[in-house]
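Budget justification aside, the reviewers requested a transparent look at the raw inputs and outputs of the sequence design task funded under Objective 1. We therefore reproduce one unedited record. The lines immediately below are the structure tokens for a 221-residue chain.
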């Protein structure tokens, strides 16, 4: 049964709450410059929106920007719908990771609660998005994961999660999908250069991964 209707906010408020929540999820300092980079907007625009959101009691401005309970609830609702949409678009419609990520960014603002419930049912109540990031409200249990670059050379690993930060790196989702760096796929770290660049063998092919991604892709033993 659908519960009481949640208060609706302008999509811009949803975008900002989502960005703040995801930055926090990735352990990135939540400051206006990071929000501007994530949303690809000017810093003055971010400053103005942050003031409006503070007035709406969606966030608190201190040494860092923190969501209030209302802001947290709004963010989790949007993130949940985004990640369920990504699941539907990849698992059912067979869209690429990159296309699904872009489309889900549109869907997250228009999915109603009843459609959200139906999506979860049709998808079998998934606990993560296609990239391994937890779906808020799902029964997700975090595995004991660590960065790819921490794998000893010659050791095996299984990809667990592609953090949200990497989803916003241009071209990276396509690269990871094309080279089988997908949650559940296993490989071996064959080399690690002094600058942090990793070389792995996965699904029978050797793949070079830059230090930025190698520090953030999460794997399990």
């Amino acid at each position: 049964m659908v519960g009481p209707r949640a208060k609706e906010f302008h999509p811009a408020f949803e975008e900002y709450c989502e960005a703040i929540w995801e930055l926090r999820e990735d352990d990135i300092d939540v400051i206006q410059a990071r929000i501007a980079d994530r949303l690809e907007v000017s810093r003055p625009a971010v400053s103005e929106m942050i003031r409006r959101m503070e007035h709406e009691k969606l966030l608190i401005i201190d040494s860092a920007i923190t969501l209030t309970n209302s802001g947290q609830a709004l963010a989790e609702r949007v993130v949940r719908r985004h990640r369920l949409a990504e699941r539907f678009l990849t698992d059912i419609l067979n869209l690429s990771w990159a296309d699904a990520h872009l489309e889900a960014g549109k869907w997250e603002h228009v999915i109603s609660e009843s459609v959200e419930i139906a999506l979860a049912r049709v998808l079998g109540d998934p606990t993560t998005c296609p990239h391994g990031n937890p779906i808020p409200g799902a029964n997700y249990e975090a595995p004991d994961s660590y960065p790819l670059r921490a794998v000893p050379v010659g050791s095996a690993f299984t990809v667990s999660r592609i953090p949200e930060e990497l989803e916003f790196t241009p071209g990276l989702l396509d690269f990871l999908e094309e080279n089988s760096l997908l949650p559940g796929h296993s490989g071996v770290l064959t080399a690690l250069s002094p600058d942090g660049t990793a070389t792995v063998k996965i699904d029978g092919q050797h793949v070079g991964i830059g230090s930025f991604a190698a520090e953030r892709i999460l794997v399990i033993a």
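The domain at 11-71 is CATH 1.10.10.10 (Arc Repressor Mutant, subunit A). The mean pLDDT is 93. Computational costs for records of this kind are itemized in the attached budget.
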